[in-house]
Known about the structure:
By secondary structure, the protein is mainly α. It has two domains: 2-35, no CATH class; 43-242. Helices cover 65% and strands 10% of the residues. The chain is built from seven helices and five strands, in the order E-H-E-E-H-H-H-H-E-E-H-H. The protein has helices at residues 17-23, 50-84, 89-112, 121-138, 140-167, 188-213, 222-242, and strands spanning 2-7, 25-30, 43-45, 171-175, 181-185. It has a three-stranded antiparallel beta sheet with strand order 3-4-5, with no helix packed on it. The longest helix has 35 residues, at 50-84. It starts with a strand and ends with a helix. Residues 12-30 have low confidence and may be disordered.
Amino acid sequence: MSKVIKTLPKNCKFSTLSQLRAKVETQTVSQEPETPNLKIKQYQYGPLNEAQKAFLDRVIRVDQAGELGANYIYAGQYFVLQHTRPELKDLLKHMWDQEIHHHNTFNKLQVIRRVRPSLLTPVWRAGAFGIGITTALLGKEAAMACTVAVETVIGGHYNDQLRILMNKFQIDAKDLNTGEIINGIESEELNSLKKTIKEFRDDELEHLDTAVENDAEAAVPYWLLTEVIKGTCKLAIWTAERV
Ligand SMILES: [Fe+2]
Ligand SMILES: [Fe+2]
């Protein structure tokens, strides 16, 4: 990009405005290095359709409710296990801190995108805290089995969302540098949401591994406990997406 800078000739004496204009010399100064191909791509994205908007709202609502639930499950487990199994405090606190970060992130997204929270939020809070306390009272193994069940369902749930976000959210955009219309690209907002969900999915799967390493499968009865909690999580997801 270049800019024309007007300068007065040397020894210019002010006279009338028209004389002054006539004497003005022009010179061209380059403001930027000549690297036109390195321009930052800027797009103006087209709107999402109604189905895409509704899906995104559901994603934010259910993920916020789910992370709230996870936060409260760990709160319940920590409340009990910090006394009964103090050696687990650091481990539980690490996982709990990650859930708090997940929860805060979706709280912010909920405000930015103006998505109403699940109407059953008090139920999710009380239910999750209850599950955390109960499994922790059953013992360390039951608490870890609970984590296995929850993270199995949540990991799968995040993967389902990512599959849809990757396949059904291509929109048209205008390249603001060239004016060209590009078909089927993803907006920065969508990319950022996908990145967030992938990061959280990986955290959840790490929690699952940690729980298995900490004797989750020794819980009695493991199968019944995990299947009941998985069923509860699936029902909660289905409900939080809608209510
Ligand atoms: Fe989480
Ligand atoms: Fe988790």
